[in-house]
Amino acid sequence: MTSNHTMSVGEALQQFLKDNNLNTKLSHLHISDYWTRVVGKLATPYTRSLEIKDDTLYVKISNAALRNELFIRRFDIVNRINEEAGYQIIKKIHLS
Questions:
Q1: How much is the pTM?
Q2: Local structure of residue 1 (DSSP, 8 states)
Q3: In what order do the strands lie in the sheet with 56-61?
Q4: How high is the mean pLDDT of the chain?
């Protein structure tokens, strides 16, 4: 069976990743990059760990004032991380 639909190598790669559920795995590897771009480099030194479990990003922050600021901005942060990933990688953030 042939198809007249042509796609670029990038599109084919994206389709392959999606079909094999590799987008999620790759995004988990890149979460620290997304985090840094979204919250900024000033927050990065206070970030002790980032882990995704069940659509939730668990973040340990060593500075209480920063943790409170990020808590206030959590919905915006979720949206911006998902924009960075190109799809919904997380639904919520748990800060500790």
A1: 0.73
A2: -
A3: 47-53, 56-61, 92-95
A4: 85
In the chain, where the domains are located = 9-95
Task: Give the tens place of pLDDT for each residue, 15-48.
Answer: 766 676 655 555 566 898 999 999 998 898 999 9
- Per residue in 78-88, pLDDT (tens digit) is 999 999 888 88
- The architecture CATH gives domain 9-95: 2-Layer Sandwich (3.30)
- Strands 92-95, 47-53: parallel, antiparallel or unpaired by DSSP? unpaired
Torsion sign (Cα): 40, 45, 47, 51: positive
- What one-character DSSP code corresponds to residue 45? G
Q: Do 93 and 72 contact (CB within 8 A), yes or no?
A: no
**42 versus 74: which is more confidently predicted?**
74
The full DSSP string for 30-90 is THHHHHHHHH-TTTGGGEEEEEEETTEEEEEES-HHHHHHHHHTHHHHHHHHHHHHTS---
